[in-house]
Amino acid sequence: MSPGLSPPREVNFATPRSFLTVFKSNLKETFFPDDPFGHLKNEPLISRKAKEVIRYFVPVFDWLPNYNFGLFKYDLLAGITIASLAIPQGISYAKLAGIPPIIGLYSSFVPPLIYTIFGSSKHLAVGTVAASSLIIAASIEEKVSPLENLTLYVSLVFTATLISGLVQLTLGVFRLGILVDFLSHSTITGFMGGTAILICLQQMKGMLGLKHFTTHTDCVSVLRAVFRNRNEWKWQSAVVGIIFLTFLQLTRFVKQKKPKLFWVSAIAPIITVIVGGLFAYLAHAEKHGIDIVGHLKKGINPPSINRITFDAKYISAPLKAGVITAMIALAEGIAIGRSFAIMKNEQIDGNKEMVAFGLMNIVGSFTSCYLTTGPFSKTAVNFNSGCRTQMSNVVMSICMLLTLLFLAPLFSYTPLVALSAIIMSAMFGLVEYDKAYHLYKTDKFDFCICMAAFFGVVFISMDMGLMLSVVLALIRALLYVARPASCKLGKIPDSSLFRDVEQYPNASNIQGILAVQLGSPIYYANSQYIRERIMRHVKHEQSVAALNGSGDIEYILLDLGAVTSIDITGVEAFLEVLRLLESKEIKMMLVNPRIGVLEKLTITKFIEKIGKESVFLSIEDAIEACRFSMKSSRGKDVADVNVA
Amino acid sequence: MSPGLSPPREVNFATPRSFLTVFKSNLKETFFPDDPFGHLKNEPLISRKAKEVIRYFVPVFDWLPNYNFGLFKYDLLAGITIASLAIPQGISYAKLAGIPPIIGLYSSFVPPLIYTIFGSSKHLAVGTVAASSLIIAASIEEKVSPLENLTLYVSLVFTATLISGLVQLTLGVFRLGILVDFLSHSTITGFMGGTAILICLQQMKGMLGLKHFTTHTDCVSVLRAVFRNRNEWKWQSAVVGIIFLTFLQLTRFVKQKKPKLFWVSAIAPIITVIVGGLFAYLAHAEKHGIDIVGHLKKGINPPSINRITFDAKYISAPLKAGVITAMIALAEGIAIGRSFAIMKNEQIDGNKEMVAFGLMNIVGSFTSCYLTTGPFSKTAVNFNSGCRTQMSNVVMSICMLLTLLFLAPLFSYTPLVALSAIIMSAMFGLVEYDKAYHLYKTDKFDFCICMAAFFGVVFISMDMGLMLSVVLALIRALLYVARPASCKLGKIPDSSLFRDVEQYPNASNIQGILAVQLGSPIYYANSQYIRERIMRHVKHEQSVAALNGSGDIEYILLDLGAVTSIDITGVEAFLEVLRLLESKEIKMMLVNPRIGVLEKLTITKFIEKIGKESVFLSIEDAIEACRFSMKSSRGKDVADVNVA
């Protein structure tokens, strides 16, 4: 292919699309990146279209019609297994949130049913989580102490749950999953690790049987509270706690060694609760300094819609707790659903999950449940127990119903120290040293973001730690935007390829021409930088040319293939570059502008200014054109001399 | 060039650079994009290096040694012209800031001298500005009223000036010019326009001779204050004001028609002041309801370092005023310096300007000056009067010195209404209808950002308007980042070029292969999107293939030429895509990864996973390889059949 002979490939200077077209397409790309109804475009039947849309929004219609007994067998087993985990976890995390333990049991009854209808993950098991429980407690205790006014405190917890649900639903309906994307994996890793440490420290209260404790969550306050109240330490409690903890950790160890025996660790918590309860009942443990959960009322969830309060005096606390936990619960739930779906080569729709989580928390807040999401431990057990569909959540829900109706009082003998052991054991798994080390090895900045979350949570407070990390990650994102990479291109020998000369040192210069590739969108935050950078490339090239005695730069080719968009300030920067280059008698040429960029350059008349003949489809074409005019201008000089 | 015959061009799999190398190079790119000492690398003499460095940081050493009388002639004329503007502007804007008018005159004496030493713009004229004056007044009046405790009020203004200076110096020293880049032109346009409207409305006080007024700056409060105090309106004041305003606007009109007569409008304010003063003196104007400036003390700036106060009770006000005005003054001053430099094909270093502005405000705050920057009107007059170097600022400074020593008392007869007319006339020029219309025509989002600043300033408050606009611009930047463009590539006929099929509809598909170009950095905020987008490209391609009955997709080529960097979450997304593709029996190949991306993919072992043989330098090479293996695998099938 000799470029001299082939007809010049033309740049497509189509008239710019109208604002509405571009806006619509951008809107669609931003909020419907998965194009859910793409395949319905050519569907003529409206009834079928409607059916498809309903099936899309309410996933239960998608899988229930094909459900059969063969699948149910698996779901039954998985459902019973996660129910056995839900009882101890429900009681434990409710204690962590400072609310009556029964609410923890209620929370595993209603929300799983809602999720079954609207949720799109087949493996997610609904339940309460430790981190969010602690955040709720920390936020609401700022306004009301559960010891002083439990009724109000619980009302505020329900209010926070409603707010969480509303936030999640809104995000889902307006397809703002994009916001959750800004909680990066590194942030979540650090945050979870930090929270796990905090929660473990908090369990010192239960392990040592302390009566007095701090409402602060940071590490220093908690340790101070533990050591200040040394007179309250009870060795009996500690001994029992360590025994339970050792048992739980052993079962984890078994699971790690033989993944097939995962069920051993899955049922360990309920065994701990049962054994602990029996022991407490038989040994009258409460008389020996080992506190028990205390009275648990029989019966299903009472309605709590009348307990929701928007009293201006307190609303700030549930508002803060609601918004933060909504985001964290979403980030955690969606990430977990996704990672299990990928193992089975399925896809999870983040926006649908948000709607499901939102509805489940809204309905939950009306039926005496507090915040639920898809916790990692429960979901992993569900997955490993071989669940096939969302039906396992229904099975768990029915188990909980039976528990609430008949067995609840039996759990009132559960020793608090057993709950602390269960929480601590669960938390150990959440500190991901390996992942942090992997981050350190592969990306130092991601590691910093992770550590900011970790140390922020441990030493300042949970919300500050999270904020710190998110802001750091945002600054990084903005730095990416503000300092886009650009590089000088050289010709790879024996080819028509032009590549970064730094990356491919054997790429050769082009006599009299400087080719620069710009990256990323060009706009206000980086346009000054790009202008400086282009001029620096020119300056550097000129100084090299002066050193080598080779000819001056006559042309600069800007490869815009990687520039996805440009704004007004960007175009102005280009105009400035054009003017600066003109004063140096260098001609600017554009190569391969993409559709959005070309449109903006046309509307702003930049193309008119440099001329359509200065825009090329490839660097090769541009160089060919430059060489031609360089030769012809030199030829003219010679001709002039001859005439003289 | 036939790709079948040429040896395969190799991707450079160099060992990744060390973290420190990458970090150093990123740091340099972020903070020293202009590479100021690049040319000193090969300089052996340390003394000469030091000299160069000093010349770089203190620009006066750069131009003063070559200064001569020929240049001075021009600077003298320009200096006298801007001094004639500095006197009325100094008095007017000081009134706007609620401080004694003499401080306005002081502020044109010391800061210009400092700028002459450290400033890098040859055309910038130093002076006070209306917008910042109003912000200072609005912020500090929240804490202290100038009517009740003028001494404290003025002290806080000096403190705010010091804080501004410190912020500017810090930004300059740490080369954080990048922060100012986040104030986009659209924001500044809207903000300036809104502020101009507010300031004009505020002048109703002076024009109507009102005694009582509001301390709020928003449009509604100001209009209410004007109409509530109708009983204070004085027609004499209004008549005189309108006469002055008409005169000033006429001179502007003359300038617009005949740009050569710019000096008519340049000296119009001082004429207004002189004529107004004479009139007030002769007609005893203050007896007829026309207030005058009042006593102005002879003598140069008294020291004010002892008046700086960091009293915790008041500090929040000067802190807020200082930080906001620092940023706005920088954005305005640097943008103006830049735009005039470009007219003369010179370049301005933003970081150096920040240092100069910072030093000038710090020294200013110690010598009874308040915030100064490079105002547009004064700089334009300086430029048009033919200034050659920073020396014109020295001339202005000397003129101000003489004024302060001998003429100050004469200006005490200046009617306030004349000052209002001067301010209003100056403000009319700052509402840039054309620019807003241009934004509307070319970029709707930029227009929204501009309007957010404009309406926010007019109807809420100056700082909220600015914030609103900056946040909107940031959201846009983050959206750019979160939704990078990607496109399907097709082969341009008769070439080896691959381009966006949407942009070049004649580009043809490649049988069994899908080539997708990704844009922008890939990282946590967009990695989920990119994964979805790639899978959607695949799904769409498969459905088209099914419709046409053509063969299935066997390969997907990801063109990474436009991907400038990738983070851990991005790599994880790639892994997910790889797994999803494997389940569909599609092979992933990478084309032209750039140096940073290839390094990250190597460290994280992604390259190991897909194999080096799946990475290519160009799409052509990749297709060649795919075709070869497609053919060979089919050939093998045939062979198997034959054997059977």
Topology record:
The structure is a homodimer of 644-residue chains.
Chain A: H1 19-31, H2 46-57, H3 60-63, H4 69-96, H5 101-106, H6 110-118, H7 130-141, H8 150-173, H9 177-181, H10 185-202, H11 204-208, H12 219-228, H13 235-257, H14 262-283, H15 316-343, H16 350-366, H17 376-384, H18 391-407, H19 416-428, H20 433-442, H21 444-460, H22 462-482, E1 486-491, E2 498-500, E3 513-519, H23 524-548, E4 555-562, H24 568-583, E5 587-591, H25 595-603, H26 606-610, E6 615-616, H27 619-643
Parallel strand pairs in A: 3-4, 4-5, 5-6
Antiparallel strand pairs in A: 1-2, 1-3
Short description:
The structure is a homodimer of 644-residue chains. Helices cover 63% and strands 5% of the residues of chain A.
Strand order of the largest sheet of chain A: 2-1-3-4-5-6
**Beta content of chain A:** under 5%
The value of Rg of chain A in angstroms is 32 Å
Poorly predicted regions of chain A are 1-7, 635-644
Keywords (chains A, B): Membrane, Transmembrane, Transmembrane helix
InterPro entries (chains A, B): S04_transporter_CS, SLC26A/SulP_dom, SLC26A/SulP_fam, STAS_dom, STAS_dom_sf
Membrane topology (chains A, B): Multi-pass membrane protein
Domain STAS (chains A, B): 503-626
Structure notes:
Two copies of one chain form a homodimer. The first copy, chain A, has 644 residues and is mostly helical. The first copy, chain A, folds into two domains: 397 residues, no CATH class; 160 residues, STAS domain (Transcription Regulator spoIIAA), CATH 3.30.750. Chain A has 27 helices and six strands. The first copy, chain A, has a six-stranded mixed beta sheet with strand order 2-1-3-4-5-6. In chain A, α4 crosses α19, α6 packs antiparallel against α18 and α10 packs parallel to α21. Chain A is elongated, with a radius of gyration of 32 Å. The interface between A and B is large, with 95 and 96 residues.
